[in-house]
Amino acid sequence: MRYILAAAAALSMTLVTAQPAHAQFGGLERTEVKEGYQIKAGEANILVFRPNVRVGAQTTGGMHEPNAEWTETAKANLIGAMQEMHGANGIELVMVPDQEGEMGDVVESYTALFGTVASAVLTHKMTYGNRLPTKKDRFDWTLGEGAAQLKELGGDYGLFFYTYDSYGSTGRKVIQGLALVLGGGLVPSGVHMGYAGLVDLNTGDLVWLNVDTSMGGDPRTVEGAQKRVAQLMEEFPLKAAGEPGEDPEGVVIVVPPATAEDGTLLPADKEGDEPASEATDEEDAE
Amino acid sequence: MRSLLATAGAVVALACAPAVQAGDKANRAEYPVFTGAYEPEDVDERGLWESFDEVERKVATSKDLIRDEGINQYMKDVLCRSVGDDRCNATRIYVVRNNAFNASMAPNGMMMVNSGLLLRMRNEAELASVLGHEFSHFEQRHSLQLFKRLRSGSDIASIVSVVVGVPLGAFFLLDVFSFNRDMEKEADVASADYLAASPYASRAAADIWVRLIDEDDARAEERNRRKRGRSTGWFASHPAPLARSEYLARATADHADDGDYGFERYGETMDPYLLTFFEDQLQRNDFAASKFILDQMGGDQWRPIHYVMQGELYRKRGLPRDLVTAEEAYRTAIEAGSTRPEAWRGLGLTLMRARNREQGAEALATYLELAPDAPDAPMMQMMIKGS
To answer: Do A13 and B157 lie within an 8 Å CB cutoff?
Structure first.
């Protein structure tokens, strides 16, 4: 038995070089948005939970070599680019600081739950040929209403994202070239993956999820990070147009009907409907 | 033969336990020179640290952590007494509820100790030797060394594979295993040096491995398979327990048997957790080994808690004759004055299973009186009603 295991171990090591080629030659790239979903109009804060950003190099043998400097730079660049992009749409990103005690537990639990739900979507919805019959035409995953606890942190939405970059080293590229020349097949050089998801904290629903296993843009540079964020935020729900507060909260302003000099009623003109929405606008501003 | 050795070791240990207090052992060695706490240096090391800092964040919020201040402070104290006050502050210890016999050290100074290891240690000196071993992985930067070795190995492997055209390059990775074993041995030897300089009895280090062989022998007999632990295989990550017990015994021979074993301190600290840890061990469905662990723990001084564990052990295997043994064990525990609700719970469930419903319901009712807020209370109430 031991020797069988040993053989299996030896075999598994030979696979070091045989990684999926999609990493470089165009792989899975999918986006799901809850049908017709829009970010609410008016002021919208999105909580950004501690992103998982990893940047390093891919060694000749295909190992990931983590690089602390690259990772830190990339993280800062990505967050900067994200703030810029969403800021332009009137959405504020709130970075969730490390939480202590009970809230720390809640954040940790929901971060883990998001990961589980997102991978269920990836497996059962985004992987064609493996889709669940009940989910084929639907995108209705949720983290449950308990997610509303997170609103305390100062936002109505929760954004989670992950990026993983392993830049092909010179040695890796040489191997890739050698393999092509010598007929060794396609040896991928470099891995660049990412995913991001948005949760509506009022309902707990996962409203948008984007997965890309061959991302562009080098997050170690500011420009690259902008390109990366644009790809990461593909098909991000639009913000609802118009005034905030779709359901006015019962503020009724009665405008005296316009009368002619002789006391007869004149037909109401269109402006008559407007003051109500202005009033709720003021309410929201408080 | 090994069982004999283990028993002999345990007896020696017991005899020495109360004799020596911490700090006054004869021929105590000096600690090896310590270069001081260090920060990651090159790109590789900074990268590894940063990755493991993220891992540590996850670990620190894990539901599997045992967060009680008492046991955590105790672990820190033992590490400090083992490796010295200069060294011990460079690391953080996390006690994880995991029934496997293991402890690990991350490159950034995060040490994890499994509850399955704590269940198997018989005294503080044994624990000190394990913590010293893990600490030495950190001090000697073993993770970084392994990372570099793996990298160069896989580099050569892939070049050879591509040039030759068949994946023969993997052979260049084979020495990673022996490289890792060498580092484990290095850590063992360093740990022996720490122990020699500490107030602890050096002899304890080898005892762990002798007992581990015996435990696996019990398992092997039950499962009718070949006994392990005597020879080191090609692909083993660690030297075989027999080899470890032998070189540790040699390394510690000069300092043997006049240090502190800390039986009582260890026993007192672990006592509140023993039953939980043992229940976790029972989840492994590994009867012979669990019985071995219990027998070692009880030694010749069985206390009520050990009888409760014995009841759990037999009840959970649940052969018809096991129910008789289990019932007797729980009753012994109760007669000996156990106040643990688990004793009545176990007794009740055993009786129910043996179709003695009336007495079973009575025992379960006593359980609920003692532990009205138990998470399984509604289920137990249902069983009482249904009887």
So the answer is: yes
